[in-house]
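Q: Could you fold this chain for me?
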Amino acid sequence: MRTVHDYVKLEREYLNGKMSIRELAKSHDIKSYSTLAAYARSHGWYKRRDKIKERTEEKVIERVSEQVAEAETDELMQFRSEALAVARASIYRYAQQMQDPLFRISAAELVKIVNTGLLILGEPTARTEERRLELTGTLGELPPEFLRRLVEASRPGRIIASGSADALPVGPTGTRQN
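A: Sure. Below is the predicted structure, expressed as structure tokens.
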């Protein structure tokens, strides 16, 4: 007599469990595990179980990552708060000591304390300025006087107002002399 198995139940148990097809067959008194294995292969149980396992692992990794990030953020915020309190206390102590005639602390030390506070707050502690002039084309086509004025204008501390007589013309001003 042929035994009829509840393949829907077996599939659900296989997909949601950890046991192999052989172990599943044994737990349900199925004599030929190869028959169950052939059925599972033809109905895509293996691929679906792999996808379920993959999604579960991704979710676990995502949750753990979120927990780690949250813990690191909390720790960073605590450190930032403590460091800012130290900087404030240093500035307050400096202000108190300034009233003492015997107090000797340099302004450079105060600047370091203030810069530390700015750094903790995420503010810039220094500013730099960069100026650049880029030219394209052949410089040999430009008149020598224009090049001399260009070099002069590029020197540090030299500012030329756009309406002044020293201002450099933009674009061609006429024809080139032979």
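A (continued): The two ends are 113 Å apart (CA to CA).
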